[in-house]
Design goal:
By secondary structure, the chain is of the alpha+beta class. About 25% of the residues lie in helices and about 40% in strands. The N and C termini lie far apart (about 45 Å).
Length: about 160
């Protein structure tokens, strides 16, 4: 933790700052956008729906197709200070470890050519092509082959 003191119009102001961890709350919430979640409020009431968005400063959230106590809502906006817990109801369809193994077999690449980054559930091939649940980033013939394998993989995952 680092403290910084400065004088502002004869007032001493102390700022406290810290280096956020790689897995901070905003990064976790980013992974939940368009996923089904359940939010428990401080008063015990629970809303379940699709996380459509959130404000990273206030942690206000917007749920789509939400339900609470038998009632259904098209949209619900919940203020951040009322949230007690956020529970994830569906896991990611993409499994980076599993996909890396499939790529190695399908493309006959050496193990050193494929790297898994578990913190972001992604695979990097030859340090130029990145694959995650959101798709394939890269260009060229190899990227196209990976894209085709990815589409087939995701199709099978969604069917199961």
């Amino acid at each position: 933790m680092k403290y910084v003191a400065e004088k502002v119009k004869d007032l001493k102001v102390i700022y406290m700052s810290y280096t956020p961890s790689p897995r901070n709350i905003v990064a976790e919430l980013n992974k939940l956008v368009n996923k089904r979640i359940s939010i428990r409020l401080v008063d015990g009431k629970t809303y379940t729906g699709i996380l459509l968005g959130y404000d990273p400063n206030t942690l206000h959230v917007v749920l789509g197709e939400a339900e609470s106590e038998g009632s259904k809502f098209h949209r619900v906006i919940i203020t951040g200070h009322r949230i007690s817990e956020i529970m994830v109801l569906e896991g990611p369809a993409f499994d980076a470890e599993e996909f890396a193994s499939i790529l190695q077999k399908e493309l006959n690449l050496p193990p050193a050519a494929i790297r898994v980054i578990p913190e972001i559930n992604a695979v990097v091939v030859l340090d130029k092509i990145t694959i995650s649940e959101s798709g394939v980033q890269g260009s060229g013939g190899l990227a196209q082959k990976i894209f085709d394998i990815f589409n087939e993989y995701m199709r099978k995952k969604r069917q199961s």
